[in-house]
Amino acid sequence: MSTPRQRRLCTWLATAAVTAVTLVGGTAYAQQQVLNLYSARHYQTDERLYDDFTKTTGIRINRVDADDAGILARLKAEGSASPADVILLVDAARLWRAEQDGLFQPVKSAALEQRVPAQFRGADAGQGSQWFGFSTRARVLVYDPSRLKPEQIDAYEKLADPALKGMICSRSGSHPYNLSLFGSVVEHLGADKAEAWLKGVTANLARDPKGGDTDQIRAVSAGECAVAIANTYYYARLMRSSSPADKAVVDKTRVVFPNQSTWGTHVNISGGAVARHAKNRDAAVKFLEYLASDQAQRYFADGNNEYPTVPGVVTENPALTAMGRFKAETVPVAKVGANTAQVQMMLDRVGYK
Ligand code: FE
Predict the structure, then answer these.
(1) CA of 126 to the centre of ligand 1 (A)
(2) Can you tell me the distance from the alpha carbon of 263 to that of 108, in angstroms, rounded to the nearest whole number?
(3) Cα of 14 to ligand 1 centre, how many Å?
(4) Model's pTM, two decimal places?
(5) What domains, with CATH codes, occur in the chain?
(6) Digit-coded pLDDT (tens) for 80-112
C-alpha cells in the first residue's frame, strides 16, 4: 500500500517521464503551435482572452510584457532575429511610429477590413493596413464642479481661455496620449491655430506636468487644479473601485466629453500588428482576427473599461454606461499619429514639458 504522498510522487515521476519523451521526440510540441506576443496591454483581464484563443485554435500564446517604448526598442534591437509574431500597443502615435520604423508588415484580411472601421486602421496602400485598432478610449476633461461650469470647458479650444489660468493639470505634453490629442487638434484647427492654442494651454497649467492620468484626476479632487485631461478608462476604473479614497475622488469630480457640438471628442486606440519578421505569420493574423470577434471585442475593451472598435458590439460596463454616450471625432487615427512629430516641435517651442 502506498501513502498518498508516494502516489503523488509516482504520478509526478510518470508525468516527468512523458515530458522527457516528448522533449526528445518533439512531436507533441511540434503539434502545438506557439505565437509570440509582445504586449503593452498589462491588464490582468486580458488573460482570459488569451486562454480562449488557445482553446479555440490550439495555438499557445507566449507573452512578453513591456511598455510601448520598451517593446519598440526591443523589436529594433532584435531586428530580423526577433521572435515576435504579433504586437499590441496602446496608442495611435506609437502604432504610427512603429509603422514608420518598419517594425510591422501589411496584413490583407477580409475579416479585419470588414470588422475594424478604416478610421481605426493604419493607412492601406493596396497591400493592407499595418495595424488595426481593437478598442478605443476617449480623452476627456475631468473637472471640479465647485470651481468650473461644464460650459467653460465643453471644447478643447476653451482650455486656452485665459479665464482658466492656473487651473489645468496635465501629464507630460510629450506623452503619446497627449501627442495624439494635440495631433487631433492640429487636424481640426490647422497647425498655426493649434500651436497658438498649445501656447494658451501651457500658460494655464496649474503646475509642471508630472504623473499619469489618474494623478491628474486626483489632483482635481485635491483642489490642486480645476480641470484635468484624462482617458475615460482611468476615470471608469476609479468609478468601479471599492476604495473609499477613489469613491471620494469620483464624488468631487465630473466628466465632460469635449466638442460635442463640433468635431467630437478625441478618441485614441489600443491596437495590434503583425511583426515585420514574424515566423508564425498565419497564426498572428488569426490572433488579430480573433480580437475583432464579438466576444473578444467585448472582453478586450470591457476588461480595461474601453469601447469596442467593431460597430454594433455592445458592452455592459456600468461605469461607461454612467458616463453616457458621446459623439467621437471621425478623423482617422493614422492622420492623428502622423501629426505627432510636428506636435512635439510645437511643444518644444511653447514650453509644454
Ligand atoms: Fe493608459
Answers:
(1) 32
(2) 31
(3) 46
(4) 0.89
(5) 7-136+269-318 (3.40.190.10), 137-266+326-350 (3.40.190.10)
(6) 999 999 999 999 999 999 999 999 999 999 999
